[in-house]
Design a protein that fits this description.
The complex is a heterodimer of chains A (about 160) and B (about 100).
Chain A lengths: L8 H37 L7 H22 L6 H25 L4 H29 L4 H12 L2
Chain B lengths: L3 E5 L2 E10 L1 H17 L2 E12 L1 H16 L3 E5 L3 H9 L7 E2 L1
Parallel strand pairs in B: 2-3, 3-4, 4-5
Antiparallel strand pairs in B: 1-2
The chains are: A mainly alpha (about 160), B alpha/beta (about 100).
Amino acid sequence: MSFSFNIKTKYTLIFSGIACMLLSLFLTYKGILAYLIQKKLEDDFGGMGGTDTIVIIRLVLSLVILILALFFFQFLKIKDLNSQKILLQCTLVMWSVVSICLVVIMKELSFFLILSLVSSIISFLSIKNLKKEIKNNKLKLSDKEIYLLNKLANKK
Amino acid sequence: MPFDENIIENKAIIKLEGDIDLEKTEELRDQAMQTLHNNEALEFDMSKVDYIDSSGISVMIELHQEAGEQSKSFSINNPSEQVSSVLKMAKLFDFFKIT
């Protein structure tokens, strides 16, 4: 039995974009939560003031991932298949690294671990599909090429 | 020589493999023209060609015509499915002598 998954590049990019937005929302939530806890502790017990490093890291990371999500949606405009292939290869590497990091550092975030693993698999399948598409496109000749070849063949 | 060549009794066989595209056609043209000049017949073994583009086909057209002018023979041996498909698409499958 053979399975074939024809996952188009645009679906992979949309999925990656949504996954990034979810990750960004989660980090924003965690950042705000850390900020509120810090503020409460400062109000109750007094403190030196200033913002905790963990709050800054979470919010900055959240912003970076949000920008990345917007990039994924912008990448939908790219029509060139070879550029799409490079893009998907980078996406695959990115999600693989995120998956490994989540396994090593934060195993408790199982939802995001599954999300990144699914994104990696989708990217991988999409690359395979795109390679087939590129190969099929290579086997085509344009009308102009056919015309010129026939002209060359009949010139003598 | 960039392409494997086998000569038997004035008949040269050039074995082509992989992609025959713009990167290779100049070398192919030079080698094949020289080989055709030195022999009575030239054959392209294309059984292992994965891809051929319009520049590759144009070299074959030139060789076919050159062979005709010199009263020599040029043919294509065992074209791969991809080569046959492109030749049919270009409506040149019957133009060449295919064995």
